[in-house]
Known about the structure:
The chain is an alpha/beta fold. It folds into 2 domains: 13-38 and 193-237, no CATH class; 41-190, Ribonuclease E inhibitor RraA/RraA-like (Glucose Oxidase, domain 1), CATH 3.50.30.40. The protein has 6 helices and 13 strands. Strands 1, 2, 3, 5, 7, 9, 12 and 13 form an 8-stranded mixed beta sheet that branches. A 3-stranded parallel beta sheet has the order 4-6-8. Strands 10-11 form a two-stranded antiparallel sheet. A hairpin with a 2-residue loop joins strand 12 (179-183) and strand 13 (186-190). The longest helix is centred in the last third of the chain and has 20 residues, at 198-217. The chain is elongated. The mean pLDDT is 96.
Amino acid sequence: MALDPSNPLPAALFDALIAVDTPTIxxxxxxxxxxxxxxxxxRKPFVATEPTARLVGFARTATIRAASPxxxxxxxxxxxxxxxxxxxxxxxxxxxxxxxDLDSEPGVGAFWGEVNSAIHHGLxxxxxxxxxxxRDLDALTTGFPILAGCLTPSHAWxxxxxxxxxxxxxGMPVHNxxxxxxxxxxxxxxxxxxxxxxxxxIALCARKEAVLISAARAGDFTPAKLRAAWAEMKKVx
Length: 237
């Protein structure tokens, strides 16, 4: 059954997804889809403000710019910022804000720092994924993990450009409402149509990998033993 993004993420599915890292999710997606893929995930490293944290939730998307003031009046920038906060605070959870910095040099100014981490955490947002920058590393709100493209000390002229739009983060296209899994390795989108098949695929991948890992770590490992373990692995269902 396809996941309904207009409802909260089922607790059992959330628990199964948050229990594993993002590479494991990618393995499970390949199992469900029946082949490997080179799309749907980020392709560059992040600065992880909480390296052991994992994120699972529905994307709340927006775009920013920071390298120049832009053409909006201060009043319009304020209205758009407040509309953005309404956007990330609404809808089913858990929610992850996903912000693309549109500047030719993303990260000139940081949207993310002490204040915005506190605001978003207070609004019930689980965390952030951005190709832009983060600052205030020692003052960020604990429990609000941020995956950012870089560090910078200034916010420059950072302002919201658009809300609930399609974005791209390090090669990963994201639509508002997409289901995302992320950790220090990067992020991946999980298609709603197959999300409920991922937990069984995670378990299957673990059973298959266990055969090879056990053989490799048993001692006196040889190519012949690898071939035998490989044949046993292919039988696992």
